[in-house]
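S1.2 Input.
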Amino acid sequence: MTDFEFSPEERPVDVYLDLLRMRMAPSDYELLLRMVGPVLEAIEEQRAGPVELGLDDAQSDGLSQEVRDEASLVVAIAVTGRLDNQIVEIETEETGPVRVVTDSGTAADPDKRREIAEYIRERHHQDEELRGIAEASGLPTDV
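S1.3 Output.
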């Protein structure tokens, strides 16, 4: 087994959650688990479709950026099996700062980060066009 392989009973996401449990305040860790629990269950069961987070509006409004970032990393690790995911903040004129989870190689590569920024810009323009079409058609735009 190399340094980067885990035994079948040691999933990378479980290792990361154990590290977070030791590092985070108990109340933050509990919130994190309520957030990611339903997502991790859906991944484990290979269940497609939307997943509701286990938080009410008041709890989600009060979440710190750290807890949000860690939740994003936990889900990324569960999906990719990689522990080298990072959160990068990409600034675009259209949207302002956007936080993105990516692998460490992409995070360190300015060209890849520019590609991500361009994708975000394109997606924003598409969303705005669709929102305009929905408004002109009398359809809801908050979906």
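S1.4 Remarks. Strands lie at 85-92, 96-103.
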